[in-house]
Q: What sequence folds into this?
C-alpha cells in the first residue's frame, strides 16, 4: 500500500508538469505542455489506431514522455466519473 501511494505522488507530479489547462486555449481543455494539442486529441488518435511513433512523426512538438502524462491524466479523470 505504501508503494502504491508513492507511485500516485510521482504520477501526479509528472502529469502536472506536462498537462496544462489555460482558460483561453482550446476552450480550457487539458493540453500538453501549453501546446494546442489536447489530451483528448492524443487519446482519439490512439483510439483510431495511430501508434505513438506515428503521432510523434505527425506532431514533432510532442515528446515520448507526453504519452505517459496523457495516460495518467485520463486515469485520474476516469476515476472521477459518476455513473
A:
Amino acid at each position: 500500500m505504501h508503494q502504491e501511494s508513492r507511485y500516485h505522488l510521482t504520477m501526479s507530479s509528472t502529469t502536472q508538469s506536462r498537462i496544462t489547462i489555460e482558460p483561453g486555449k482550446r476552450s480550457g481543455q487539458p493540453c500538453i505542455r501549453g501546446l494546442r494539442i489536447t489530451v483528448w486529441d492524443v487519446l482519439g488518435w490512439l483510439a483510431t489506431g495511430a501508434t505513438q511513433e506515428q503521432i510523434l512523426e505527425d506532431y514533432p512538438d510532442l515528446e515520448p514522455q507526453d504519452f505517459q502524462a496523457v495516460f495518467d491524466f485520463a486515469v485520474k479523470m476516469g476515476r472521477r466519473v459518476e455513473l
Summary: The first strand starts at residue 19 and ends at 20. The CA atoms of residues 20 and 34 lie 6 Å apart. Residues 1-10 have pLDDT under 50 and may be disordered. The helical segments are 2-18, 39-47, 52-58, 64-78.
